[in-house]
Amino acid sequence: MKRFIETHEWQVIEDGFRPEQNRVVESLMSLGNGYMGMRGNFEEAYSGNSLQGTYMAGVYYPDRTVVGWWKVGYPEYFAKVLNAVNFIGINVHLGGTPLDLHYWKPTRFRRTLDMHKGELTRLFEVVDGDGRTFSILTRRFVSKARRELACISYKITLEDDPTNKGAAVTFTPYLDGNIVNEDANYGEDFWQALDQSSAPGVQLVTMETKKSGFVVAAASSFSLYLNDQEVTDLQAAYTASPRYAQGEISTVLQRGDSLRLEKVVAVTTSRDHPAQTVSDQAIGLLQQHKRPYSELFQDHAAQWARVWEDSDIQITGDVAAQQGIRFNIFHLHQTYTGEDPRLNIGPKGFTGEKYGGSTYWDTEAYCLPFYLSTRDPQIARNLLMYRYHHLEKAQENAARLGLKGALYPMVTMTGEECHNEWEITFEEIHRNGAIAYAIFNYVRYTGDQDYLVQYGLDVLVEICRFWASRVTFQPRKGVYMILGVTGPNEYENNVNNNWYTNRIASWCLEYTLEVLEELGAKIPGHLRPDPKELHMWEDIVQNMYYPLLPDLGVFAQQDGFMDKELLSVDAIPRSELPLNQHWSWDRILRSCFIKQADVLQGLFFFGDRYDLDTKKRNFDFYEPMTVHESSLSPCVYAIMAAEIGYKSKAYELYLRTARLDLDNYNNDTDDGLHITSMAGTWMSVVYGFGGLRMEDDHLSLRPFAPTKWNGYSFRVLFRGHHLIVRVSANEVAVSQIEGSPFELLLYGQIHTLKEGGEIRIGLPA
């Protein structure tokens, strides 16, 4: 694949401006800190193709769902991730002409995202009509040290001046609340103005969302430096209008002079402060942290250094693979920090508006393992508590469909379902299983039984009640079926007996029964199901129907799968990929082609229940038909390929998941990045090549190194044990940098590892 982004271990680099790729690069260059973030837009005006985007975590708009085919149970609204006040803006005039790279063609251009320090920079040159050459360097970051702060530095140098008259330069830093969502219906405005002002020392714009009533205030101030000396004698003009505030300052540069504007921004919301104080909080925070860019950046970069110390994966001998994994880890840490248990992991993070909502099943199925193994266990616990706090809403969601128990939403902000496609809202119910699996995964990894007793069991019981009310007993065959569903493969809708859905539903019941038996007298009184109810759960577990293809030795994805014309993806002309951008939905649904891991998703989750031959047969059957047009797909296939010994295939699929956005595999990076699948990239290395699993309450590793790598290393946090795993072509070394002695399984053999100790053995042939 031809790349226009340079490969680099720590940086994402666009060398040379490509307007046709600008929206893709804006996504790639996004910045965030878990509280707020923005796309990699230009600070100055740009009239070309761009998605201007600034987003605040948890701030949304409940856009009413209006359809002519309304069904009972249909979600009442679609939760839109809102484009908020544009606070990075700095209009620039050079020699009296507005700077706009849609019209000014840069003679050189370099946009760089430094992932190690969390900074976005641009360096470019432009030449005006009089032949004057201007060199421009912009820098910005969203503070990792103080989450409500952001900072921008904009430097202009007059490199050459054939006129010998100098050049007038005008900076107009501004805050702009006149913003809309690209996905707004008929350009609908989701905000209303509350306050705006502009005066020396502070500009302010305060807005409130319609319907949801979130108040957001952005306050900014700026300083000016001529040849690195602060300028205090230039008079600025300050103006404000509804939703807008700016300052304007001008001077004349001579050849060799540099003029730098530094802008500090504070953004506060009513999610964290009383609504009536939000403006004052922003102004106070701004005044408290009014320091030079270099000082604020130093604190920010130090926080990023700590993050990388705990979660970096180092790969030697393959720069593209190294860049890919760091890119994914970087954006995960930008999106979710775990500080606020009210938040979750949105599929686009702070990189775009698409999909809406803050939570999909992606969190439990893909993201939880990353946070379990790289951060304090409380962060993973917060992700589970998010679902616990939404249990009542999940019960309401099930009741709307005429069912018992709890049905967790496919997409949500507050626990209510807000996804507006019926085949997802009503039918993609396997998401419930991912919630239960995450509880199981968390408890077995951390040993946190208290969570299970106090919170987890409530969720498990209600999920089981949903499954028991959703199954259909087929008396002629004496089995339970689940009819009318959409499995993980969304290229099939309204099918009967999706194998994965049936499997995870039965597993939920089985696991909950085991937990109830294990906890015994510890079970709270309100969670003691009636014996008749337990008997029914047991009967469903024992008599669940699983579609099989016995002549092939594989599980049938659903009852009618073999009625389709079975073709390999190789039969599709490359010009027709991705299918979802070239084929009608009708044609896709009738085809055999698979959007993402479906049967393989179940074999990954429940890998201890199936032997390698079973996994290999299913992989060989389904992978050739899988187009991987979901970002969640290649990571699961990579892990499974690694487990069954398809090492080159595992590497190929790893590279696809690691560089999904960097190389724009699915031609959709312009809408924003695929944040939740990025945790799957981490799993591809740690679970795939590293072979990390839980076996008999032990942490287990079975690592190997891809042939294209000289080696790799990763860190794992497990029950207070801080481990470093280093793998080369010939050996693996596991060391414990902190923690008491414990037993570790390495290739199935128990080893005792002490603090400061190391196990070093040769890789099996």
SSE-based structural type: alpha+beta
What is the correct CATH architecture of the largest domain? Alpha/alpha barrel
Number of helices: 18
Low-confidence stretches: none
Give me the count of strands: 34
Mean pLDDT across all amino acids? 95
CATH topology of the largest domain: Glycosyltransferase
Q: Rounded to an integer, what's the Rg over CA atoms?
A: 27 Å
Given the C-alpha coordinates, what overall shape results? globular
- Biggest sheet descriptor: 11 strands, antiparallel
Number of domains: 3
* CATH top level label of the largest domain: Mainly Alpha
- N/C terminus separation: 32 Å
Helix content: 25-40%
In percent terms, what proportion of residues is strand?
25-35%
Please give a structural write-up.
- The protein has three domains: 5-308, Glycoside hydrolase, family 65, N-terminal domain (Beta-galactosidase, Chain A, domain 5, Distorted Sandwich), CATH 2.70.98; 312-689, Glycosyltransferase (Alpha/alpha barrel), CATH 1.50.10.10; 690-765, Sandwich (Maltose phosphorylase, domain 3).
- Strand 16 and strand 17 form a beta hairpin.
- It is α+β, with helices and mostly antiparallel strands and 765 residues long.
- The relative contact order is 0.09.
- The strands form eight sheets. Strands 1, 2, 10, 11, 12, 13, 15, 16, 17, 18 and 21 form an eleven-stranded antiparallel β-sheet that branches.
- Helix 14 (599-605) packs across helix 16.
- The protein is 30% helix and 26% strand.
- The model has no long low-confidence stretch (mean pLDDT 95).
